[in-house]
Structure formats: structure tokens, C-alpha cells
Design goal:
The chain has 270 residues and is of the alpha+beta class. Helix content is 24%, strand content 27%. The protein is built from six helices and 17 strands. Strands 7, 8, 9, 10, 13, 14, 15, 16 and 17 form a nine-stranded mixed β-sheet that branches. A four-stranded antiparallel β-sheet has the order 3-2-5-6, with no helix packed on it. A two-stranded antiparallel ribbon has the order 1-4. Strand 8 (100-102) and strand 9 form a beta hairpin. Helix 1 (7-13) packs across helix 2. The longest helix is centred in the C-terminal third of the chain and has 23 residues, at 229-251.
Length: 270
Amino acid sequence: MPEKSRIQKILAACGVASRRQAEELLRAGRVTVNGRPAGLGDSAVPGKDVLAVDGETVSFSGRTYYLALHKPRGFVTTMHDERDRRCVAQLVADLGERVYPVGRLDKDSEGLLLMTNDGDFANRVAHPKSHVAKTYRVTVRPQVTEEQLTRMSTGMVIDGRKTAPAKVRVLEQQPGRVVLEIVLYEGRNREIRKMCEALGLEVARLKRVAIGPVRLGMLAQGKYRELTKEEVRGLLAESKKGEQGNDRDTAHGRPGTGKRAVGRRGGRRP
């Protein structure tokens, strides 16, 4: 018979949220056990007690899912939206299991989004210290100068804080339009859009094409697939490597980025 566990641990194991986020849900009174409000420090028996978040029952299937989803533009990265906008949850409804996004893509962006019901996996991959590489194909207008490429590559101040070094290279260049490949190693909100805005560039299209070793490939918009075991292991290995690099930098008195910028034009793919 399953033993009692702290509710935040159960919620993390079911992919609802990381343990820290689950604690916030408990403090906010959004979690119930067998229909009664649960508080921080309460316990439950997985599979026996009925847990719900915001009235929606948490599933204890025992199987973990790791998905790659091609998020189209116009969908918000959430499981439920109070403004009735289209959510990524609708795109995985036929899975028959509640899974949650790993990180975010804003409504106007498209491309690769990871989803899972493994809270510990989600926390490790999405944690700011992990520095898992995220690769984007970005179309900007009108033109890009070498100075602008340098500023994006070496870091620039947005929202009062300097961005981590990034890899930036030109993929295509036409009159009034440039396609860039940008690789980020941190997860700040709308970072690319804010960098481009600060440089006077208009983002016409933003598509995430890879997260660590996982590539979007030919996956159709609105469709998903399960990650391979090798992809899951690769994501965890990259997150661990990033954390170790961050620890080494901190130990030597340097801000931990775990990565450094590589050249601009003709730079290597990650």
C-alpha cells in the first residue's frame, strides 16, 4: 500500500508543478484533498486520496510522459486561460493524461515546447541554473548591423539586467529582411523580443527549433511526439552540465553562465 507523502512532493511527481511552485499553490488555497482545502505541510496517499488543483483532479497513472509539441502562434503556454484564449492543453487533450509545459513560449511565438507530467524533470530542465541551450530562428526587419550582432552576442541590458552571452549568426539576408539563428542559455521572459526592441529591430517571426538535443524537425504545427530515451537523457545531462558550470563560475567569483559566446557570422550550430 502506498505511503503518505507531502502534497508538494506528490504534485511535483505528477508534473503539476515543481515543489516550490506546489508550495505556492498550497499557500494560495488552490489545492484540495478529498474535497477539503489542503495546507502547506499536509500529506496524502497517492492513488488513494483525491487531490485537485483549482478543482481539477490530479491523475496518478504512474506513467511518465515526455513530449515535444509544435506550438502554433496564437496559443498561450498554459493549461487554462481565464480570458478563454486557446491553450496548449487543447493540443495534447487526446493524450488522456495531464501534462504540463516545461518553460514557456509567448503567444506570438511558435515552435518547440516540451511537456511532461514529471515535475522533477521539468524543474531540472527549466531551472535558470541549468542553462539548457534553446535555439531560435528569428526573422527581423529591416536590416542587422555588425554592431547589433555583437551586442546580442556579448550581452546587453534589458529590464535593468544584462543578458547572458548568446550565439547569433545570420542565416539569410534580403532587402528589408534578415533571418537570424539565436541560441540562448537563460530563460528570461520574452528575451529575444526585448533585445530586438532595444536595438530598434522588428521581430516578424520567432520560432524555437531546438531545446538542447531535441530538435523540432518536421513535426507539424499543433502535433506532438514522445521524446526518445536518448533525448530525455540528453536533456538531463545538459542541465546537469550547466549546473556544474554555474557552480564552477560561482566558486571562482564569476557570474555563472555556464557558456560563452561564439562568433557571429558563420558560427557553429550548438
